[in-house]
Amino acid sequence: MKIKNKPLVWYFLFTILSGMHLFSAVMVIFYKDWGGLNQFQIQTLQSVFSVGIVLLEIPTGLVADLVGRKQSLILGSFIAALGFVLYGSFSGFSSFLVAELIISLGFSLISGANSALLFEILEKQKKEHELQKIRGRVRAAKLLTYAFSAQLGSKIASLWGLNAPMFLTALPIFMATFAVMMIPEEKKEKTKKGESKIQLAMKGLIILKDKKIFRLAINGALVNSSAYFLIWFYQPLIRKLGMPLESNGVFYSAMVLVEAVIAANFGRIGKYTKRYLDFSALVTGISFLLAGLFPSPATLTALLLFAGGFGLTRMELVNSKIQLLTPSENHATLLSAVSLLAKLVLIPLNPLVGLVADKSLSLAFLLVGTIPFLVLVFLPVRPEEE
After folding, report:
1. pTM for the full model?
2. Residues 96, 98, 101, 102: what is their CA dihedral angle, to the nearest 10 degrees?
3. pLDDT class for 117, splitting at 50, 70, 90?
């Protein structure tokens, strides 16, 4: 589909700029070599981030539903940029802890508002039925940005130090605020008589009680929690295998390119939701188990392509499906609640898996690889959720 309308163009530009994560290919090395942290401390920081998201996700989702998606995205981007400046300026666990909390506030403001604003743009153009397709292409654009920024960040790290990519990530994220300013936001329709804006927004939480919505959300959150650890463990595995530093950027770029191809085809994949979600959970679990049992460049490649390509994209499809099943005025709050579920799962898992990884990286892979199989057995997507 050719992008002709200006709101969508600005939205894509916001997506690209906010996705310039220059630190991605050297992130774990940054923590260990520049910050002096072990894997347990790294994952503990991620639990702190998750706690911050859990505490802030619903309130910030309400902010987006009540005062506007644009305002939430602008404020969130500005706050996140400040967090990255702090991250790249001071090393050590305490400094990183403060930076994580600041970034968690910024990302909370961005989280639900981001997807809700896209739906709002499409709804205005009477194209909400194309949400899965457009959202897939937005995701593909962001992933291509990840691939480019990983390569650029690796070069920056080699020239200016491991903290430079983290510090400089603040620049494109701050610039993203100007892109979102250019998107016209629709005036909210008046609420029904006797219904306050707070009551309307809180419906987003009530909707999550629907069994079909909740099963989709918890299924997505659990498998996503498994695939999530790929981001933190592929770099230590590369180091364990004795591969050069440049391999980080190459493997990461290959992974996100596969993700981009899959995400760009969400319009087609969305017709087979159950089959895709089952398949992506299965290959995520298998690839982690293989990498744990037989660590090698071959199993690392399979892990990045399958757990990365399929595992890390499936939550986008879950969110799109949930949006299509629910009223648009509740989307920011509802998607914030779904994101909250995912973070709740990671709060206990992060330090536990990090502690195991410090003892045995292979054992950590095996532990993470069991999660998708448990989901397939106890929380499979039902045929009526197709």
Report:
1. 0.82
2. -100
3. confident
